[in-house]
Amino acid sequence: LRRLYADVFSDIGNAFSGPVELRDFLVGVGAELFANMEISYRISMTIRLGMARGVSQGGETQFYLHLGTPF
Fold first, then answer.
1. Tell me, what's the pLDDT at 16?
2. Strands across the sheet with 61-68, in order?
3. How many other C-beta atoms can be found within 10 angstroms of the C-beta atom of residue 47?
4. Considering only CA atoms, which of 20, 46, 19 is closest in space to residue 33?
5. How far apart are CA 1 and CA 54, in angstroms?
6. 3-class secondary structure, 23
7. Helix/strand/coil for 2
8. For position 5, what pLDDT does the model report?
9. Of 24, 29, 51, 70, which is least surrounded by CB within 10 A?
10. 59: phi then psi, degrees, rounded to nearest 5
11. Could you tell me which of 26, 47, 27, 23 has the C-alpha nearest to residue 37?
12. Are the CB atoms for 51 and 33 separated by under 8 Å?
């Protein structure tokens, strides 16, 4: 394990195809842990484990895991 980060975030927005109305915007919040690792001294890898929650009406909670390589 090379580095470990913690992150909290918020998001507001939507996709529009007509007039933009402020009441149509959706709000979400979340948190994640992000780790940089090296495998066998040559291969770098990142791992993200997070949770996001839609706080607008109809919002839901989602958990996610992302494995990848940094660029």
1. 87
2. 3-13, 26-39, 43-54, 61-68
3. 15
4. 46
5. 31
6. helix
7. coil
8. 95
9. 70
10. -65, 155
11. 47
12. no
Tens-digit pLDDT profile for residues 12-28 = 999 988 899 888 899 99
The pLDDT value given to residue 39: 83
Rounded to the nearest angstrom, the gap between the alpha carbon of residue 58 and the centroid of all alpha carbons in its chain is 19
Count the helix, strand and coil residues of the chain and give each as a percent rounded to the nearest 5.
5, 65, 30
pLDDT of residue 71: 65
26 token code pair: 């959706």
Q: In whole angstroms, give the CA distance from residue 62 to residue 71.
A: 26
Mean pLDDT of 32-61: 92
In tens, the pLDDT along 30-44 reads 999 999 988 877 888
For residues 14, 67, 44, 29, the Cα torsion angle rounded to the nearest 10 degrees is 40
The amino acid that residue 11 corresponds to is D
Would the pLDDT of 56 be above 90?
Answer: yes
